[in-house]
Amino acid sequence: EADIYQTPRYLVIGTGKKITLECSQTMGHDKMYWYQQDPGMELHLIHYSYGVNSTEKGDLSSESTVSRIRTEHFPLTLESARPSHTSQYLCASSETGTGGYEQYFGPGTRLTVT
Amino acid sequence: KNQVEQSPQSLIILEGKNCTLQCNYTVSPFSNLRWYKQDTGRGPVSLTIMTFSENTKSNGRYTATLDADTKQSSLHITASQLSDSASYICVVSDRGSTLGRLYFGRGTQLTVWP
Question: Which of B51, B37, B54 lies closest to B90, judged by CA?
Answer without folding.
Answer: B37
